[in-house]
Specification:
Chain A: Keywords: Membrane, Transmembrane, Transmembrane helix. Chain A: It holds the Pfam family OB_2TM_halo. Chain B: Keywords: Hydrolase, Membrane, Transmembrane, Transmembrane helix. The complex is a heterodimer of chains A (about 160) and B (about 160). With about 160 residues, chain A is an alpha+beta fold. Chain A has four helices and seven strands; from the N terminus they run αααβββββαββ. In chain A, strands 1-2-3-5-4 form a five-stranded mixed barrel. Chain A has a two-stranded antiparallel sheet with strand order 6-7. Chain B is mainly α and about 160 residues long. Helices cover about 55% and strands about 0% of the residues of chain B. The chains are: A alpha+beta (about 160), B mainly alpha (about 160). The interface between A and B is large, with 58 and 53 residues.
Amino acid sequence: MHVWVRVVIVLALFLTLGGLFVHAEVTEEKWSPYPDAADLSAEYDSYVGQRVMVFGTVTAISEDRIEIKAESDGTTVPLGVTGASTAAEPGGVVQVYGTLEPEQTIAAERVEVINSSRWVEFYKYGASAVGALGFLLLFFRHWRIDRDTWTLEARDG
Amino acid sequence: MADLLTHLLVPYILLTIASGGVGWLDQRWIVVGMGGAAIPDLVKVEIVVHEETVEALLGIPFTYKPLSTLGGVLLLSGIIAVAFERRHWRRVFGLVTFGGLTSLLLDGMRVYADGRASAWLYPFTSWRPPTPSLYVSSDPTVLVVALFAAGTVAVIDRRIQAGN
């Protein structure tokens, strides 16, 4: 197999993937039924009364209200969540499902903890780093790159 | 999503069990299948290069989300397969796709507040499969269970190998 045939195939597949990266964003509403933080920031009032599901970082917790900061595409929206309690601490991440009410408030039906505190994020990245390193070591114990053909070859033939 | 280590361990467990009945499925092929499990995690490239940065550079809407979907897994499995010798393409594609699917399925079983996983069958259908809400991704129990199962499978596999 000529190297250029493989290059053409890889380029075609990458271009298709790039196409999906654009297509998925253009047609976003078809794949995720809820407004994201950018939508809420742009035209909050048009979503009032609708069901929403947002991810947000907890900023403060009071007796009857959880303050969160939802983020998407670089836009941040502060929201107050009522009608639910959470085990998350400030700095943790929660998922909120409920009805959007006026004045930056969600009447929650369900609040799920994604990260109970900001430290949990480090645990996940730590475990993932161990996984990545272990995988690379394991992979290149069995496979090597043949510099003549630029293919991956089994080490033991 | 579950962490990368958990994602890698799931196809290791399943493929090692399957290797008992499939002669060619040895360690080096199992490792290839494990690689596929990392594909949906590539969506985290967002941490390195933000989507907004790409959008600003190219001037078009852009999201990495397809990496964590069936479409992304199939395309990257193709790209990875082509990196191998021609005679291995079919096998590599199958194994890598399998690994990617295990990650998508595992992630599709985590908790979503509205009871529905993301549309990970993109771009084939916008249907959001119901999730059994088995776990949240930050729960270390998931990794502990995966590590325990992988360890058990590895020990049994070694015994069988030694017995042959």
